[in-house]
Amino acid sequence: MKYASYFLNIVLIGALGYVGYKFVYDGNVATGSEDRIAVILTAAEKAEVLGEMRGLLETSQAVLLAATSDDVASIPDIVRPYGMIAVENESITMAAKLPLELKTMGYDAHRAMDALGAMAAEGASGDDIIATLAGAMSLCTTCHATYRFVAEEEMN
Ligand code: HEC
Prior knowledge:
By secondary structure, this protein is mainly alpha-helical. About 70% of the residues lie in helices and about 10% in strands. The protein has a three-stranded mixed sheet with strand order 1-2-3. The longest helix has 26 residues, at about 45-70. The N and C termini lie far apart (about 45 Å). Heme C (HEC) binds near residues 53, 56, 137 and 149.
């Protein structure tokens, strides 16, 4: 009886460890004929992240426009919705499907938006803003080269 419960504990601890690993590190991924890693989401989650992506692109464009047209003061308001505030609305179920590396780059991209806002509020020049945005956009290109999103509904 005692041994059975030891055994059960080991199985339980193992199972919890596996779930923890899947949740934090691995995410829900597949590899296919493409080099990029496919992150499998529901169609609704995919639509949500792609919507967020278009927002990031619009924000980057608006920041460039402001920085090159002597309007740095407008940048804190432009970037705010795509700073870390955007992450707060993401569901835990979806976050669990994102590999850790992707989540880290994603959070860094949102943090970069907040950082641009803070720089602008402290009176940075347009050129400094552009240089910082150019650096931050390597997060966009690195992540795009590594991952793609696939809706599970599209898989069968
Ligand atoms: C953490 C990873 C990651 C980061 C960081 C990231 N993206 Fe994406 N983005 C993706 C993935 C994955 C896709 C889907 C690509 C695919 O499925 O082929 C995507 C798609 C897009 C799309 C297409 C949206 C659509 O409607 O199809 C745009 C635009 C985009 N990203 C812009 C950006 C911009 C701009 C940045 C940086 C400010 C950025 N992304 C940062 C992962 C990322």
